[in-house]
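Exercise 7.
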Amino acid sequence: MRMLVHRTAGGAALPFAMDALKIYLRSPDDAEDHQIENIGLTAAAELEQFAQIALLTQTIRVTIFNPDRESGLILPIGPVADDDIPTVTIDGEAFTAFDFVGGNRPYIHWLADYHNLTPGRMTIEYQAGFGADATDVPSDLAQALMDQAALHYDGRSPMDAKSLTTSPHMARIGARYRGVQV
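Solution. The predicted structure, written as tokens, is:
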């Protein structure tokens, strides 16, 4: 089984409050706004990747080649609202024989019709994220993002690769959202 995951942003909103990030970085004037925005976006991308989440609403497309014959599939990116049912296509045909459970670790449970197939390619598309703007991002994730951004901001142009790592706060909060998969 080979899984490819593609994210498409839902809009141009920033996943953080620019003024709050500037204050957190101790750079309240406008001289470095462009650099601070880039650092914030980099920290957001790192947090999303680490925690396997979408901060702001975005479309997730999962393509699976030669899917496993298991009874279900944990979707790779959360959170997903319980009533936001994914669309599934198997070998180019729409497929609806599944149950869906949303949440931070969304799950598709395949019904009997799935087990009668021999799929070669499956595509699952769904909306994931906490909302449309930075105020929808949970406060612990917003703080973790700012902490990671501060690490980048304070450690610009490090002399060695070990100097710029993951913020311990981001790692701790991100791990909580990532969850444990059995």
